[in-house]
C-alpha cells in the first residue's frame, strides 16, 4: 500500500481570492491557471501495519508542526470520504521542488501530489476530477494542479467545485520567469489574508464580478492564442486582487519595495518594445509572462535592475503523474 | 487694483478622486481635509492699464508654460463669471512654500490664493463660500483651502459643490509629518490618474460608496476628538483610493519603493506603541498623522530607516488671509 505521485505547481492567471465556505473550501469566483514545468512536488504515501504512528517527512526531514497536522488531517479526510476507516498508520515523504511559501503556491503541487499518492496507495482509482475535489479540501489551488497546460477551478458546491482542463497541450508560446527577491516565508498567509479581505474589503463584491469578466476574456485569449490579451488580463486581474487588500480594514499589502521595482522594470521593458506582463500571488515575488524570443532580453535587463534577484524560468507543465 | 492673498495647502483625510463633471470640476464624493500651517502660497494679482500683456511669475521666475495658461484661464473665468469683462491686462506673482507636485497638492493653496487675490484686486468682496466655488474651477482641492482647521468639500452642483468649515479651530492634538523621499514632479498627474480610474476601474462605484461611509466616520471622529479613529479612517480611506488605481485598465500606482518602506516604518512604530497613521495623495510621499508626544520618536526612527528622506512638520493652518 505505497504510491508516489508528482504534481506541478500552477500560477493563477485569474486569481482565487476568498472562500464562500471555509469548511469545504468553495471559492467565490472561478480561477484559471497555467501549470508550470519547473516547480513540482514528489510525494510518497505508504500505509503499513508495521508503522506505530503517522509520520511526515518534508525534503528528507521529519516535520512535526502545523504543516504535518494539515497533511495528516487531509489524509484522514480522504480515507473517511472514501469509506476506508480502518487503514493502518501511514508515512508521507514529500520533496518540494518549489521555493516554499514565497508566493509560488507550493501548497498547490503539495496537496495535489498528496491526494493522488494517498488514493493510489489505498488501491483506488479515481478520475482527475474526483481527485481534484479531494485535493480542494487540502488547498484550493491544488484543484488545478491535477491538470496540465491551462486549467480552471470552478466555483460551485462540494461536488461541482473542481478543476478541469481548459487545454492540456496549449499551442501558445508562453513562458514564466519567477523573479525571486525575497525567499522568506510570507508574513500574511494567503488563508488569513483572503479571509480578512472577504470580511472587510469594500471592494470584495466588485472583485468577484471583475474576476468573472476577466475569466471570460482569458478563456477567449487562450482560444485565440492571443498572448498580448492573456498578459494584459492576467496583469490587471492580479492587481485588482491586490487592490482588494488595500481596501480591507485595516489595509494590508503583499507588495514590497522590490515588487515595485520589478513592476517598474517590466514597464520599462514594455516601453522598449519587449512584450511582457506580470502577475503576483499572495507574496512579494513578481512572475513575468512572456514569449520565447524575449526571455534573454528580460533576464539581462533584470540582472541589471535587480542584481540580487534569482530568476527561474518555466513553461507549461503536465498534469498529475504517478512515479510508482 | 492690486491684492495679495495667502492660502495654506491642505491634506485630504477623506480623498477626492474623480469628477462627475469635468468642466465644472464636480466630484463624485465629498472630501474632508486638514489645512496645514507649514505649506502655503502667497499670490499677488494686479490689473493695470499700463500692462501690455498678461504675465505670471512663479517663485520670482517668469513662467510661460501650461501652468501659466491655467492661471490665465482661471482669472478669465473669474472675471467672466463676475461680469467684469473689460478689465485691463494683469500680472500674477506667486510664491509657493510647498514642494511643487510631489504629492503635497500645491494646486490647493495655489488656486485658493489666486482666486482670493484676483477677486480682491477687482475690488469685490465675496464670502469664503463664494470664493471656494470659484477656486474649484481651477482645482478641486482648492475649495477646502479657503478654510482653516478641518474643512469639507461637498459633492453637488456648480453652486452647491463648495468648501465649508467643519471646525476652524479644532481642539484635537493633531500633527502631520510629510516624509519627502522623492521631490520629482509626479509621473501621472492626478487629473489624468483619477479620470482613467473613473472610466475604467471596476472598483470605482464601491469607492464612492466607501468614501461616503468614511466621511461619516471621520466627522464623528472629529466631533469626539478621537485621534485614533481619525487616523485609522484616514489611512484606510487613502489606501482604498490607491486601490482603485490598481484596478484601473491598465493598472497603475503612485506607490514607489520608498513609499512601502515608509508604510512599513509606520507599522513598526505602531507595533512599538507609538501611535501614528499615514495618508498618501497622488504621489509617492507618505504623510504621517500623529500627536505631539510622539513626534520626536517618529522623526528619530524615520531618520534611521529612511535617512535620505526629509521630514517636514505641520499642524493646523488658518483659512484664507489677505496680506495687502
Automatic annotation (TrEMBL), chains A, B:
Residues 7-158 form the Diphosphomevalonate decarboxylase-like N-terminal domain. Residues 181-313 form the Mvd1 C-terminal domain. Keywords: ATP-binding, Lipid biosynthesis, Lipid metabolism, Lyase, Nucleotide-binding. The keyword ATP-binding applies. GO terms for molecular function: diphosphomevalonate decarboxylase activity. SUPFAM superfamilies: GHMP Kinase, C-terminal domain, Ribosomal protein S5 domain 2-like. InterPro entries: GHMP_kinase_C_sf, Mev_decarb, Mev_diP_decarb, MVD-like_N, Mvd1_C, Ribosomal_Su5_D2-typ_SF, Ribsml_uS5_D2-typ_fold_subgr. Its EC number is 4.1.1.33. It comes from the Bacteria. Belongs to the diphosphomevalonate decarboxylase family. This is diphosphomevalonate decarboxylase. The lineage of its organism: Bacteria, Bacillati, Bacillota, Bacilli, Lactobacillales. The gene is mvaD.
Amino acid at each position: 500500500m505505497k504510491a508516489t505521485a508528482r504534481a506541478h505547481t500552477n500560477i493563477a492567471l485569474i486569481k482565487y481570492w476568498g472562500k464562500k465556505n471555509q469548511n469545504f473550501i468553495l471559492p467565490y469566483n472561478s480561477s484559471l491557471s497555467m501549470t508550470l514545468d519547473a516547480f513540482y512536488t514528489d510525494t510518497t504515501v505508504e500505509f503499513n501495519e508495521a508503522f506505530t504512528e503517522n509520520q511526515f517527512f518534508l525534503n528528507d526531514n521529519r516535520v512535526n508542526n502545523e504543516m504535518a497536522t494539515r497533511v495528516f488531517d487531509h489524509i484522514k479526510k480522504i480515507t473517511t470520504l472514501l469509506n476506508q476507516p480502518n487503514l493502518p498508520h501511514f508515512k508521507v515523504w514529500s520533496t518540494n521542488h518549489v521555493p516554499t511559501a514565497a508566493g509560488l503556491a507550493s501548497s498547490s503541487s503539495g496537496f495535489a501530489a498528496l491526494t493522488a499518492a494517498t488514493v493510489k496507495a489505498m488501491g483506488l482509482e479515481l478520475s482527475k476530477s474526483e481527485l481534484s475535489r479531494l485535493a480542494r479540501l487540502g488547498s484550493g489551488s491544488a484543484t488545478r494542479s491535477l491538470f496540465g497546460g491551462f486549467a480552471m477551478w470552478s466555483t460551485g458546491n462540494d461536488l461541482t467545485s473542481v478543476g478541469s482542463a481548459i487545454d492540456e497541450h496549449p499551442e501558445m508560446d508562453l513562458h514564466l520567469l519567477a523573479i525571486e527577491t525575497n525567499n522568506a516565508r510570507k508574513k500574511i498567509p494567503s488563508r488569513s489574508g483572503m479571509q480578512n479581505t472577504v470580511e472587510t474589503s469594500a471592494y470584495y463584491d466588485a472583485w468577484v464580478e471583475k474576476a468573472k469578466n476577466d475569466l471570460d476574456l482569458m478563456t477567449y485569449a487562450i482560444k485565440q492564442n492571443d498572448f498580448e490579451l492573456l498578459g494584459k488580463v492576467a496583469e490587471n486581474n492580479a492587481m485588482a486582487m491586490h487592490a482588494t487588500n488595500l481596501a480591507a480594514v485595516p489595509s494590508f499589502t503583499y507588495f514590497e519595495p522590490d515588487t515595485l521595482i520589478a513592476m517598474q522594470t517590466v514597464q520599462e521593458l514594455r516601453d522598449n518594445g519587449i512584450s511582457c506582463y506580470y502577475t503576483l500571488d499572495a507574496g512579494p515575488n513578481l512572475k513575468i509572462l512572456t514569449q520565447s524570443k524575449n526571455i534573454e532580453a528580460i533576464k539581462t535587463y533584470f540582472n541589471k535592475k535587480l542584481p540580487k534577484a534569482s530568476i527561474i524560468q518555466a513553461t507549461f507543465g503536465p498534469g498529475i503523474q504517478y512515479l510508482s
